[in-house]
Amino acid sequence: MKRSTWYKAAVCTMLAAGLLFAPLAATGSYAHAASAKTASQQSQELALWVDGKKMTLSSPIVKENGAALAPMKELLDAMGVVSALESKTGTIIVRDGGLTLSMAVGKKEAIVNGNTVVLATPAILKNGVPYVPVRFVAEQLEASVEWDSAANAIKIETWSYQGEDELGEEEGNLPDLPKLSANDIVNLYDGSVVMIMTNKAQGSGIAVGEDLILTNYHVIADAASATAYDIYSDEMKVKGVVAVNEAADLAIIRTEKPHDLMPVEVGYAFEANKGDRVVAIGSPLGLQNTVSDGLISNLSYDAGVSWIQFNAPTDHGSSGGALFNEYGQFIGITSAGYDNSLADLNFAVSAFHAAMLMDQVTDKMVKDAEFLEPIFPETLVGAPLSDIQKLLEKEFSSVATSEGVAEFTKWEAKRDSEGWLVLTANIDPLFYLYYAKQVEDELRFWTVLLGQEFHRMLPDDKIQVLISFERDYGFQPRGFAQGEVTFIGEGKWRVKHTVIDMQLKDQMYIRTRI
To answer: Mean pLDDT throughout 106-133?
Structure first.
């Protein structure tokens, strides 16, 4: 379950403090001028409300082409989001969980997780203060934005604030429930949790019907066969996959025959609050139906998926296991976590996503259950280099790390004069500069997995994977080896050097420059 490729990373707490970043606060003289406004001027200014609170801004909201722009730092701080301005390039960087948003001051293009989005109104710099378009940024962060004409105000509600309201409404409908001990929960549900072995991986699952088992999508995604085992070591052959929600990392699979396991009730209304006690049951490292307990550490929402962060210990193989609250309610599917952390940073997909998936299941889907098409082909022997390049672009264009998503561009597959298959790409330069050191082990592991997968498909090839840093500068950087800095004209120099070099045949060699 602990995957270095986990793509729902927690909110980053810092963006390389001070490194290449300009001060974000307004200058003293500008702040003083703002404070000297008349009451009439203040009454005409647009007000900004975030999560039910009126903000006091050091710099007023401005309008450009009918769009409202607010001071970047104050707006995004109020929304609980990390932001920074890189002064040398005039690039505004916004990070929130798995979202990376960047936009250059004055340019009508933004980059959202590697994709280009056209802006109606660009970010601006006014009196030294970076301003961002309110609606665009808020909606990218999945917040709601409303215009209150009577109050002359823009009102924003973040996803977490909206979630608190919804949770409060649900809680009001919940009956009073007795609290259960971990032993009580084990006695109720241990027999409902299974270990899953596929031809590619090991995970966990939860009985949710007479022949249905809920698990993680990543447990079953690339499998051609699978078997589920209950606590009595009874084998249940898996017929196939009934339904999936890849975004929420969920799948429902069907056993060939009905099983005798008690289905766990999967519903929409349950208690899940920060600080609540929880119990996890799964099969970490193949140790079947291991139970652990802890607390809900946090609740988060990213790209349409609700996550429950908890500190009950889990490990590889726990994916697809069950998370219960202290009332014995099924609240989540254990799905991911951070390796090499002393804080037990683990995450479960909220059970209401499982309830939504189950509501979509039809009798025909159950009847037609079959294994998914494999992610990778059985072989690439004889395949043209163009097909290999397309596979790289499709499956290896990004990797999710504990510091967010690293993007890889300019994939190219070629064979050199010595017969090596050389796979090359560029890593997102900003991610490399700010986070590569923190996630060096994760990047190495990702490269190893890439190499191993291609070795499986091309067992007789010598394979080299070269990941490079490439960035253009308006000055000639110093301290690089010969050939790593090239003048490209118009006062610009390009820095390019290899940051990961992995070579593989019957043995593997890998080195990093991070």
So the answer is: 89
